[in-house]
Amino acid sequence: MWHKLGLLCVLFLGIAVAAVAGPKSGGVLRVALASEPGTLDMQLTTGVAASIPARHVFEGLFAFDENYTPRPMLLEDWELSADGKTVTFYLRRRVLFHNGKELVAEDVVASLERWGKYGLTSKALWNHVQKLEAVDDYTVVMVLDQPFAPLETYLANIYGGPRIYPKEVVEAADAEPIPPEDYVGTGPYKFIEWKAGDYIKLVRFDGYSARDSAPSGYAGKRVAYFDELLFYFVPEDNARLVGVQAGTYDYAVNIPNDLYPNVEGDPNLVPIIVDHPPVYPVALINTISPLTGKMKIRQAILAAIDMEPLMLAGYGDPKFWKLNGSYFAPGIRWYTTAGTEAYDQADPEEAKRLLKEAGYNGEPLRIIVAGDMTAQYNQSLVVADQLKKVGFNVDLQVYDKATFFARRNNRENPEWELAFTFFYTIPDPSLVLPLNPKYAGWWDTPQKRILVEVLNQITDFKVRYKVWEAIMELWYIEVPTIKFGDAFQLHLKRADLKGYGTDYINMGAAPYFWNSWKE
Amino acid sequence: MFSYIVRRAAGMVVSVLLVVTITFVLMQLIPGDPSSVLLGPNATPEQIEGLKRTWGLDQPIWVQFYKYFANFFHGNLGESIFFRQPVLRIIGQRAETSIFLGIMALMVVVGLGVPAGVIAAVRPNSWVDNSLLLLALAGASIPSFWLGLMLMVLFAGKLHLLPSSGYTSVIATGNIANLKNLVLPAFALGFVNAALVARTARSSMLDVLRVDYITTARAKGLRDSVVILKHALRNAAIPITTVISFTFASLISGAVVTENVFALPGVGSLIVQSVLKRDYPVIQGIMLVVAVLYVVINFVTDLTYAFLDPRIRYR
Fold first, then answer.
1. Dihedral of CA A397/A400/A405/A406: which sign?
2. Ranges under pLDDT 70 in chain B
3. CATH no. for A276-488
4. Rounded to an integer, what distance in angstroms lies between the CA atom of residue B231 and that of residue A442?
5. DSSP secondary structure letters along A121-182
6. Do residue A402 and residue B44 have CB atoms under 8 angstroms apart?
């Protein structure tokens, strides 16, 4: 009897210890990425593979919390003048770069100026910047010619966004991508080595100056528990999966959905279905092509498409996708159903009627897709079939990614009508790619221009939401792109990796590993 | 012999220059460019053109061609567009993996292929011969990536006996145990290539075993093992050596699929990544190195013939 009671006590004690076991410092985290980035200079790339290691090294003035609300990161505070045209940034003090130098205002000015000139997502903001100057070591003033509502969002965005580098690094690089030996940031991990084709190695930065605020998403306090982070490039899907099973890696991104049954139920593994936020598979439509420049042709394509078989072809089991015509997923504050009555019509007769009205005469409809983007390729086959059935003369062209992007972006000689790709969830509608008239598809109509201008100027959320609804209505009338649905990626981690994936799963498309540890 | 070597060396230089020139022209002809790859899918055409200007990729092809060869003849193969490092250094970093993988795969090729071929030839049309032929046929038919994946799932995923993928330098770390990362890929690569060597060894041995001096050797009462290994195998070795030498060159330079499957940082995966990224200087550099490798191995193989068969003389 006493023996059994003793055993029970030991058991309860064990459970209690396990329950209160907190984060542990030390160790190496191994992450399997699906591809090798071209650069970690995030001002010059929008690649997600680059962003995963880069966000541990570089920081911005703002960072998104778990609700995608921008929060100060390198800033102590900031203020906006009453007319909304003068922004004053107050930097945090004693923030060190990895080279030991303190972050000061001139670093911020140099970084923002380079971003304004060459950054991939800077133009909408930078067109309105009249002046940017360092008032003292810790104060930067930005003067705009008109209010710019999504300012903090633009400054928090990492994809082609303004990461802050030391002034001398910025000046040395200018328009070129910063070389790896100059990867100097303020993040919790510092860059050590990039072994081409193999891995990127980061180690904990002992001089890191963490915020005091509670961690939330990418914002708040960041604690580097791991001594070392290794990001391996593992292009083969099965190798990433088996690697996590075998313990070679602790975390792997982008496991093919059809391999889910292989990992379900394994006590050593935790599959993570990244359903919030999803990715959005789309077809871009070339609005300056003689054929699809006609709105009725674009409307006919939209009318013809039946979304369900498309999503099944692209993403398999319905637990990995949902039908949704909005360019934001339900649960995100910009979600709206405005305009989406035209989504998923699956109405071949309506498509044929529109084609007749448009005077379609069998001109080839060129669909381009990258064969190595499997979901997009599979979806293109279904769309080609559906469009053939309503009378389109479809010419499906499959390329490798580099050729695909070169063709897709060639505005002078755009040899395509439909291009298959996908968008990641972004935090503000002003960053939705087709709203930029220079983005492939080149959607640029007077109504759209006015609405986007208003969206960028008005600061009140309710008014901006109404404007976004109007844009969505216009989107489904002018049909510059066709969204197929919301798709969820599958990531995989070892069960002993704690912190990440439990509290902040909604940042899953681009995971981060500060505030994470291994038991 | 000396004049032969000089003539061959001149021919080798011409071959290498031809390969480099053809590669340069072909790379310029295929669509896509490194700036659009680096900037990502969402860059605007203006941004892509801006970076192309910065890198000088907007210049006419003949200007780029002239610059490349001017540097080439000064021993400078240029810098990788993506890594901003000298091309030779990048290839050097990847060479270790490929060389060790090539050697280990070659051990599998020779260790399985030659004995299998010899045994099959010694017992022609027996069940042993038929079984080995069947195995060789299977080896030649199985894609190495599939075999690699199956080995990975079994030995890494299920049995946890070997690492699933990746490789850490033995030279840099001094840890020879890292070679265990190459066991599965070497077997996957070697097994497939062993089939070819086995078939070559079998047919070559069969030809030799029918020759009169083998009958004479047997009539003299020599042991079977001496007849086969000393007299027959040495004379059958020339075609086997040819196949093995070219297999070795392809194992080092062309383990493209296997290196990708096992995420090995070798020359094969560098070729794939560089082509996909359009990293022109790296592609040029690799093609140069591979061309040199092939002509040198070819040359050494020719010299080996003279060693194996004293009747062969080069003038």
1. negative
2. 1, 41-42, 253-254, 313-315
3. 3.10.105.10
4. 76
5. T-HHHHTTEEEEEEEETTEEEEEESS--TTHHHHHH--TT------HHHHHHHTTSPPPGGG
6. no
- Which whole-number Å values give the CA distances from A230 to A27, A32, A185, A252, B166, in the listed order? 11, 9, 17, 12, 12
What tokens appear for B69 in the block?
Answer: 């060869």
Of B31, B41, B93, the CB nearest to A195: B93
Amino acid at residue number A119: G
**Tell me, what DSSP letter sits at residue A97?**
P
> What span, in angstroms and rounded, lies between the C-alpha atoms of A399 and A410?
15
pLDDT exceeds 70 at position A84: yes
Interacting residues of B121 by C-beta distance below 8 A, sequence separation 6+: B129, B201, B202, B203, B204, B205, B206, B209
The 3-class secondary structure across B127-178, one letter per residue, is: HHHHHHHHHHHHHHHCCHHHHHHHHHHHHHHHCCCCCCCCCCCHHHHCCHHH
- Mutation site, A230, A405, A432, interface B, largest B CB count within 10 A: A405
Neighboring chain A residues of B265 at a CB cutoff of 8 Å? 195-198
CB contact under 8 A, A197 and B38: no
C-alpha span between B295 and B284 (Å, rounded)? 17
Residues A350-393 have pLDDT tens digits of 999 999 999 999 999 999 999 888 899 999 999 999 999 999 99
Residue A18 has a pLDDT of: 45
pLDDT digits 0-9 by tens, A174-191: 988 999 999 999 999 999
How many helices (H) does chain A have, and how many strands (E)? Answer: 15, 20
Query: For position A467, what pLDDT does the model report?
Result: 96
pLDDT of residue A5: 53
- Output the pLDDT for position A4: 56
For chain A, give every domain's residue range: 28-232+496-518, 276-488
Give rounded-to-5 percent helix, strand, coil for chain A. Answer: 35, 25, 40
Residue of B31, B41, B164 with shortest CB distance to A239: B164
Q: Tell me how close the Cα of A178 comes to any Cα of chain B, in angstroms.
A: 9
Distances in whole angstroms, Cα of residue B265 to Cα of each of A201, B165, B203: 15, 10, 37
Please state which of the four CATH numbers 3.40.50.2300, 3.40.190.10, 3.30.428.10, 3.20.20.70 is assigned to the domain occupying A28-232+496-518. 3.40.190.10
**A interface mutation test: which of B33, B165, B182, B279 has the most A CBs within 10 A?**
B165
CA distance A330 to chain B (A): 24
pTM of the model: 0.84
Q: Which residue of B has its CA nearest to A401?
A: B276
| d(CA A185, nearest CA chain B) in Å | 19
Query: Which residues of A fall within a CB distance of 8 Å from B153?
Result: 238, 242
Name chain B contacts of A118, Cβ cutoff 8 Å.
47, 50
* B37, amino acid identity: V
The amino acid at B121: A
Q: How many CB atoms lie within 10 A of CB B224?
A: 10
Contacts of A179 in chain B (CB under 8 A): 84
Nearest-Cα distance to chain B for A381, in Å, is 21
A345 Cβ contact list (under 8 Å, min separation 6): A302, A303, A304, A305
Q: Are strands A517-518 and A497-498 parallel, antiparallel or unpaired?
A: antiparallel
Cα distance from A307 to chain B (closest Cα, Å)?
A: 24
E strands of A268-415, at which residues?
A: 269-285, 321-322, 364-370, 393-399
Q: Which of B37, B85, B166 sits opposite A38 (nearest CB)?
A: B37
Closest-CA residue of chain B to A263: B157
CA dihedral (A357, A359, A364, A368) in degrees, to 10, reads -40
DSSP state of A498: E
Quick one: pLDDT at residue B293? 84
Do the chains contact at A234 and B263, CB–CB below 8 Å?
Answer: yes
